[in-house]
Amino acid sequence: MTHTTPPRTGGQILVDTLRLHGAERIFCVPGESYLAVLDALLDAPDIAVTVCRQESGAAMMADAYARCTGRPGVCFVTRGPGATNASAGLHIAQQDSTPVILFIGQIRRDTQEREAFQEIDYRRMLGPLTKWTAQIDDTARIPEMVSRAYHNATAGRPGPVALALPEDMLTETAEAPDAGPSRPVTTGVDPTALAELRERLAAAERPFVLAGGGGWDEGASAALHRFAESWDLPVGVSFRCQGYFDCLHPNYAGDVGLGANPELVRHIQASDLLIALGPKLGEATSQGYSLLDIPRPRQTFIHIHADAEELGRVYQSDLPINADMRAAPRALATLTPPDSVPWSAWTREVNASYHRWTDDPPANPGTLQMGEIITWLNEHLPEEAIIANGAGNYCIWSNRFYRYRRFRSMLAPTSGSMGYGAPAAIAAALACPNRPVVGFSGDGCFLMTGQELATAVQYRVPVVLLVVNNGSYGTIRMHQEREYPGRVSATDLHNPDFAALARSHGAHGERVEHTEEFPEAFRRAQGVGGPALIELMLDKATIAPGRSLGGG
């Protein structure tokens, strides 16, 4: 039953609707196209407004905030260039199945279809990057359409949605009844399918669980641990989903992504039953679609996914189960195992393979050893610490050798988007003030969104940003050396003094050139109580763990 409300402007209705849906923080770059919303936010002190320096950083912060809180991340940008900049963050949210709601200030309705100033048809532009893109043309329909945005972003496979807001629509008044708060839709596991899964699992000799995808929460991660422990199952995670399963757990197998442990790949291929719990098995996790046979994997294959259309898209499963990751792990945790299982030795071998791959980071050229730095962080950061990174070969060190212990201790883009590390770390520190946050960026990666350091200074965000500076687009240089050895083109970088740049922003900044300098530098960075940046001077010859220019 609806109730009448006094006339309000579209901006007021929108802000009131966000409050009803539980929005506590928005990320934005202001624009004249949604001034009515900015004005209404003055009367909503319970919604924190984080003003960012560029729309891609704002959208990436909304993505990271959503991952950390489990609630949709909200981002406001202006029309035209604002929306095109934000599309980088939407692509990350789309590939990572993150619920993000992007609100875009739009041109007035009476100027549309004339190629007006900064005019874009967002349905056409953002359609492939979102679950739903629409424009609110009727002020009275704001509660309805924002409610739909929240439900759409969180239901099934989570993802981003975008709503365009014509400037004149936001200043018009209307009597619009408020909608109630949205409730996440849960898709449970069919009892018959659950019984069949138990029967197939009990008959296996070399089972393997591969967990990943979006829509997880801390309770689901805990349930996965209970399921793995009661059945003594080896558990791996899909690309950049570390933190779903404790890396120091005796059942942990490692992550399956770019540069995966070759022994882990062979173990999965040798399994006789594979339970894919949440991942869509895209290109990175599937090792370029070579991990499993297409269309019928050779092993018994059980695929559990929140999106029914994903089941059977590439791989035909013996038991497809349409269930979301809030429900499926909890259902698996209820299954009673047999008195004994025949695969315990298999599980121990899979775990031993993980440790052979990760326990002893190799040395790299130069005076700064990335492996020793990661080892030090493993020993000195608490298990609740959050590690964020963007994209580049520098990520291999933290992705492979850091021990992720708690749920959402990793924030990283499966889309391989550069620039994610710094804004994601800043948003994580805002979302989880009681958890230490460290952001890894390469030199090229940081300069794409490093202006958000100013945002961190403005809000005194306690975050430590590590910038790995090798003066190169290292990943591209690696591919270049493989395809065109000795012919360096467009991969060298001339960088600023990153430590001085941080200090010019008002942050703590220092440079580390030798490994032994890092511990005290890190302690100083943590002790400032605000943003800090440490520039790590890495030898350009370092390509990846165990690989260097001219050294194999």
Q: What does it look like?
A:
The protein contains 20 helices and 22 strands. With 552 residues, the chain is an alpha/beta fold. The chain has three domains: 8-174, Rossmann fold; 191-356, 3-Layer(aba) Sandwich (Rossmann fold); 360-548, 3-Layer(aba) Sandwich (Rossmann fold). The strands form five sheets. It has a six-stranded parallel beta sheet with strand order 3-2-4-5-7-6, sandwiched between helices. It has a six-stranded parallel beta sheet with strand order 11-10-9-12-13-14, sandwiched between helices. It is globular, with a radius of gyration of 24 Å. It starts with 7 loop residues before the first strand and ends with a strand. The mean pLDDT is 95.
Could you name the CATH class of the largest domain? Alpha Beta
Low-confidence stretches: none
User: Would you identify the CATH architecture of the largest domain?
Assistant: 3-Layer(aba) Sandwich
Specify the helix fraction band: 25-40%
Q: Write down the domain tally.
A: 3
Shape: globular
Distance between the ends: 70 Å
The name CATH uses for the topology of the largest domain is Rossmann fold
Q: Biggest sheet, strands in spatial order?
A: 3-2-4-5-7-6
Please work out how many helical segments DSSP would assign.
Answer: 20
- Taken as a percent bin, the fraction of beta residues is 15-25%
Overall pLDDT level: 95
Class of secondary structure makeup: alpha/beta
Rg estimate, integer Å? 24 Å
Helix-strand layout with pairing:
Layout: E1 8-9, H1 10-20, E2 25-28, H2 35-41, E3 48-51, H3 55-69, E4 73-77, H4 81-96, E5 100-106, H5 122-126, E6 132-135, H6 142-154, E7 161-166, H7 167-171, E8 173-174, H8 191-202, E9 207-211, H9 218-231, E10 235-238, E11 252-256, H10 262-270, E12 273-277, E13 300-305, E14 319-322, H11 328-332, H12 344-358, H13 370-380, E15 386-389, H14 395-401, E16 410-411, H15 421-431, E17 437-442, H16 443-449, H17 453-458, E18 464-469, H18 474-483, H19 498-505, E19 508-512, H20 518-527, E20 532-537, E21 542-544, E22 547-548
Parallel strand pairs: 2-3, 2-4, 4-5, 5-7, 6-7, 9-10, 9-12, 10-11, 12-13, 13-14, 15-16, 15-17, 17-18, 18-20, 19-20
Antiparallel strand pairs: 1-8, 21-22
